[in-house]
From TrEMBL:
Protein's name in the database: Uncharacterized protein
Length: 134
């Protein structure tokens, strides 16, 4: 289940990237404080873009193998001007207690974990446990 500001919100980074208005590059440096790096580039058009990544936004590793997905521990809202690239570092939980620590490019998904499960690492692992391979 997802809630809040998700892919139906036109300011969600996933929606803006899907529409071609925003280039999103993500890289994980482990998990925890400032572990997730986002590079957001406005691809053109008039005026600034308001870009949002909600609490609970889910990112997955770009490569193969069992690598921990990351879940945004905090919401992000930034303005990006035409032709400008903005870098944002944010704190993220890991979404798979048995996966490899992510130190790799990540892909932003349209999924947003309920804020109740994104309130702490233990709560997130309780939510994700049924989806993890055994």
């Amino acid at each position: 289940r997802t809630e809040g500001r998700g892919p139906a919100d036109e300011a969600h980074a996933f929606v803006l990237a899907s529409n071609g208005a925003l280039d999103v590059r993500c890289h994980a440096h482990g998990f925890g404080a400032r572990a997730l790096e986002l590079r957001l580039r406005h691809c053109g058009g008039p005026g600034p873009l308001t870009v949002e990544l909600p609490l609970g936004a889910v990112l997955v590793a770009a490569g193969q193998g069992r690598t921990q997905p990351l879940v945004a521990e905090e919401p992000v809202r930034v303005e990006v001007w035409p032709g400008e690239e903005t870098q944002v570092r944010l704190t993220a939980f890991c979404g798979d207690s048995q996966g490899a620590v992510p130190r790799c490019p990540m892909v932003l998904t349209q999924y947003v974990v309920d804020s109740g499960y994104a309130s702490g690492q233990a709560a997130l692992w309780r939510w994700s446990a049924p989806f993890q391979p055994r």
